[in-house]
């Protein structure tokens, strides 16, 4: 039985006991065990009458760009959406199952699940994905929608353990979330119009792409622009690439004026 001097006793920490007795545990690096495609930066912003959801289009595999025009904003049902960040494969599969679950519930019950219930359901799915997340296949989405009971847009963030957190004004996720979140925080005002919220979302993604190599910026040459969607009382509407390109064109004019 080993003895320890005061200050070196590992107590109930078994790993520390192994180290103290010269039996270093076998090192396991749980990060990046599987090199799969990863979606990067998504965000949601509350606006007057609803919420705007946006995402860049780039997916990466290590240091490589695996996809330039990936879809990251999906309708969950008629009045809600999921924006994915993290491991692309599990994220897209999770969205498909989530859509099916919401449709099944509505057919069985004769009415849609509440927005709160939808967020809870997605949190349970993330909790079930935890073993895969520990192997590097983490999924960290944003869920947003229009809540008819409150008459306003609501948005939720999650962590890989299934933790669900409602945000009041905006939410970001992904590798460029820090930069995007800073831009949104500085530019956000209560009661933003839909047009101003879209402009702010595109501006945030542009700055995130400028600082984060995994986030893709607008690509006018290929006609690839951020995924933009608006959710209001009238339902989910995704902007076309042409409409997203017009929002970016207005941002470009603003940036050019600021550079002169």
Taken as a percent bin, the fraction of beta residues is 15-25%
Distance between the termini: 75 Å
> At the third CATH level, what is the topology name?
Glutamine Phosphoribosylpyrophosphate, subunit 1, domain 1
Give the number of DSSP strands: 14
Number of helices: 7
Biggest β-sheet: strands ordered side by side in the sheet: 12-2-3-13-14
CATH architecture: 4-Layer Sandwich
Low-confidence stretches: 28-33
Structural class: alpha+beta
CATH class: Alpha Beta
* Biggest sheet record: 5 strands, antiparallel
Explain what you see.
The protein has one domain (38-259): 4-Layer Sandwich (Glutamine Phosphoribosylpyrophosphate, subunit 1, domain 1). It is of the alpha+beta class and 260 residues long. Mean pLDDT is 89; it is low at 28-33. It has seven helices and 14 strands. Helices cover 37% and strands 24% of the residues. It has helices at residues 14-20, 88-109, 115-128, 130-133, 177-187, 194-211, 241-259, and strands at residues 38-39, 42-47, 50-55, 59-61, 64-67, 73-77, 80-83, 86-87, 142-147, 152-158, 164-167, 170-173, 227-232, 235-238.
